[in-house]
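Aim 2 progress. For Phospholipid-transporting ATPase, the working sequence is reproduced below.
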Amino acid sequence: MRRKKKETLRRVFANNSESNDRYINNKVTNSKYHWWSFLPINLWEQFGRFMNQYFLIIATLQLWTEIAPVDPKTIWGPLSFIFLLSAIKSGLDDLNRHRVDKKANERIFHVIRDCEPRDVMSKNIRVGDIIYLKENMESPCDLVLLSSSNKDGSCYIQTANLDGETDLKTRVALKGTRVLNSQGLLSQFKGLIECKPPNPEIYLFDSRLKMETNDTDEDFLSLSVKQTIFQGVHLKNTKFIYGLSVYTGNETKLGMNKLPPESKWTKIDRQINNMTIVIFCIQFLLVLSLGALGSLWKSKEGKKKFYLYYPRDEEWYQFLIIPLRFLLLISLMIPISVKVTLDICKSLYALFINWDLKMWDYDNNIGAYANNTSISEDLGQIEYIFSDKTGTLTENIMEFKKCSIAGISYGNKHKHSSALKDPRLCKAIKNQQPEVILFFLNLALNNTIVPIKIKNKDRIAVNSSFSQEDSRYDDISVVENSKKIDIAIDYDSNDDSDDDVNVGSDEDEILLKLDHSGETKKKDKNLDSLNEHQVKNESGKQKKIIYKASSPDEEALVKAASTMGIEFVERETKTLTLIFNLHDAKSGRNKIKRQYELIKTLNFTSDRKRMSVLIKEIGTQEIYLFIKGADDEIFKRLDPQTDEALLEKTKNDVENFARKGLRTLLFGYRAVTGKELKRFLKEYKTANNEIEGRERELEKIFHKFEQNFHLLGATAIEDKLQDQVPETIRILREAGIKIWMLTGDKYSTSLQISKACNLIPHNGIVYKIEGGEQIAVEKCIKAIFQKIAVNQQNYYLFIGGKTLEIALNSLKSKLIKLCINANSVICCRTTPQQKSKVVKMIKDLKKMTLAIGDGGNDVTMIQTAHIGVGIVGKEGLQAVRASDYSISRFKFLLRLMLVHGRYSYYRTAFIVQYSFYKAIFFCVIQIIYNFWSGFSGISFFNSMSVMTYNGIFTAFPIFFYLHDKDVSEELIYLNPQLYLDSSKGRFFNKKTLFWWFVRAVYQGAITMLFLAFIFKDRDYLYAMDGSGADQALISMTGFTAVLLLQTFTLALETKHWTLYNHLIIWGFLIFYYLSSLLANSLPNFEMYYAMFRTFSDPIHWLACLLINVVAQLPVIIAKYWSSQYTPTRADLIREKEVYYRSNGLPINIAHKSKKKNLIYSKIIPSYNSSDFGNNGIFDPIRDCFGKRDFKRMNKKDPLTRLIKDNIENELLKKHNELHSITQTNSKNSSFNHLKIVETDDDYYFLSGNSQSMFSTSSTSSSFQDNEMMI
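Predicted structure tokens for this construct:
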């Protein structure tokens, strides 16, 4: 068979299907199986797991009747059931994929093929077909846009299915093809496209087009991603387009990106694997030992027993019989049901997260969602959190606050919160100072925003399009409305590809997204105040302008320019229109309309950290290059002749802005001559025609062109912290979790935000790792180590992106040693790859990591960590889709980890250990029984008992342990140190495993030995008919005792009882008795009449009672000893919780409401009430303390506010002067601390006694902070 040649360059011929036959059709296949391949492939996948292979070998050996101790059904039944469940799940999932594929493949599209129009199914579309798409249709394959219903060849698309971006983007056809907007013209089109082979790069399409196949190479037109409409993209606000198909089927960009996600194993999964290996080794040793004993007994004793009928001449394999029989007998030591049990439990954990209304964002109608259903318990074991800054810790709602223009700083006066209200700036604008006008002209022109004019009657429709949501983020679409105006972003205003700069910039990394992220605007905010500006048209009627941008920075800057009188009102294909609301001395008019030709846009990328626009003013023909970006990029591109004083003043202003936590950008400009422009365009055209290395060549040209700028000034934008971020970080810290911030922002801004959000205390010791070379960085690290050795205090680290890269590559071990001991590490000016490397550095130390972010630049970090959390923000859904869990606010991370994570780990730890315990317990009975049966490998229990023990009677009650809680949710918040129990693995470790192993061996031995002791008397007679005790009676007595013991074990281990627990635990015991009696009634059943005899014998009930008492008594004593003399933190808190609940005292005093689930309270140091004399204001509080530990007072009571305010003021005023008195008299105080908790309707006053229940020690951090979150 001829091997297919690897494709290096794809050549697509329009209207020539014969030349394109070598390419695949457009049939989309996302399914894994066919009807004929499902069974073999699914079985192959299931038997690819070691545990399944092990049980298959055991089940196969069971078919050998000579060695099978029980009926083969005991293993084949449960094994088949488990395989059937997995197969059904896989089959149903794949069936849904088949249905989706069928629906997609059978859609009808109008195409032009071989110069003839026709209707074809989507699966029959071929490369080279010209596709006709109407508004709202989804593209069936990857197309190159040829023409559209718009004269300029533009169209609007929504790429949510491709990259998660819900905003609209524009695509523009080449000037040469946009005239081909009819079937007649397109039928005659014989063009050729040369592009790369199929690849997953959704932001790159470096290719070229010939209008005729016989054209020369010089006639090639450059194509970029701006001329593409990829599969899955929806056409919006455009009547129709025509596009030439270049990639089809699973070779499209969407198809190439559909890779299976990396499977993540939890820490417990890895521990289970290790435990399975250890148990298998123990099992192997037991098989050898017991097999040797059995062979020895057979040779010395067994052959003397004539009734055993051992043959004289044995087969050669007889020496294997007894060891193999023991292998089958104790194969249950590795429980067959543990995997399917865990799979079901993990799915339920994910549902608990999805259903949790306490993590529901009522403002945006978004809840938490588990994208990965198999790793919830790892949420309870996190040791390090890596967080993005903008949009994760902050709101990503930008407000223009300050600016520096020509060395003058505006907005610093205390009277003016914003530079836009500074009288000096207003005066400069009024006087039309050149530097100020150029500064705001840069703000108005240097962006990708599209302004849209709307009438008042259209505003409702616009509002609806802005507020549309989707609960699961997968099928996001713009709300359809005939009067709706969809607003495009990322509009590149170039006429054709020759004027279209493509630096490989990501669509999601639009202008100045240096590290932005955030949350969608709240629904209840009025759109008028958010992004609308009023302008008047020629008739004097007012219209509204809405600015739409993916970057909140852009919107803030353009609004600032508009506020100062330079208003951006219209963007056409190549023309930008501004309204100058300034007095013009020449014309005498106050409003001047000016238009600018947009020659080039040099887009922002995370590597460039800057954006430039090449502008020609229509009228004067003056050409300018405006630039803006990060200060470290702009300063090095300034004219060498820049005034030193201006440079120094601007640097100081930028530094001052950053110290206040503001985001800074620098702005500059330079004039461009016609000769210089011509040379640039020529070099650009040459580079832009390259297929390989186009991005690299273009960046070289841009770098050379973006030089010698005149400094205009700097802006400072405020991005506020999200609600409850400092409190959340504080509680996470108390839970023993270290939090690192990885951001692309500069050092000063990162430092201020770190202090504002509680990452670094205001008096914290901060060390900064600096250096541009390895020697300098190494020297800096060494100096920090020396300072740490002297100070011996907690410290915090800062490191920049360039320094970080050096340290990661050359000084990794020293960097790890320095960072691992720091309280927090802040990495600023980092790239996405650097974020990922930092996470991997800690992950490689076997530390459990969690990464949280909201933007596309956080995806690699999120995917690298053990747990990835995405925040639904303003930068699309890329982070959410790449994450394991998604939330809408940073504060919800607290509940996700401390409640869901801890409970999931606590429950899984018990379920796993209990599953192995009950399996080992059962096998111990079987092993000890063989000491009385000549080590023959025979089973003590009948086949039905063996099969139902793990499969039914002890399996289903476990699932209701998923409701168990060792402590209540409220007390976890108040005692975050409880999280250490899970993060340090205290519920599941070698010590706990050993305890469960000893428990299983002891109880198994007690069960069998007591049975042997009770029924050992040969003269024992059954009371009803005088018959002796046979094996069936003893076996069923033993099995009943075993199930009773397992039931009481579950009851003993349950900490939180509910109605469901009672019904299931005790209900399954009743179910056992009823089912046993039913089986007892079937004549052809091996248990026929055995249970009647067993249950009617008082010895049976006495034996069950005695076995359970003796087996459980040491366990109860050990638990009592542990809780009284070596109690855990959870034991102490649970004991106090039980006491308070039993006395009717409040545990959760937080008032539940739909929008406010967390209530703030103040811990105030208090003293003996006599210290305040006879102030009557304290009487209501003094009266209640001593009788009860709390007092509730309704807010509506006029006296309540007075009491609350007076208590706060008096206590805080006397705090310092009475501090020494407190130390001596605290024992006699009526209360030592007073806690005031505010809810929606009431105030709660709690004394120090009631407060003690919330802490395990008197030095709890609860008293050390002014605020506490419940």
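The longest strand covers residues 394-405. This observation will guide construct design in the next reporting period.
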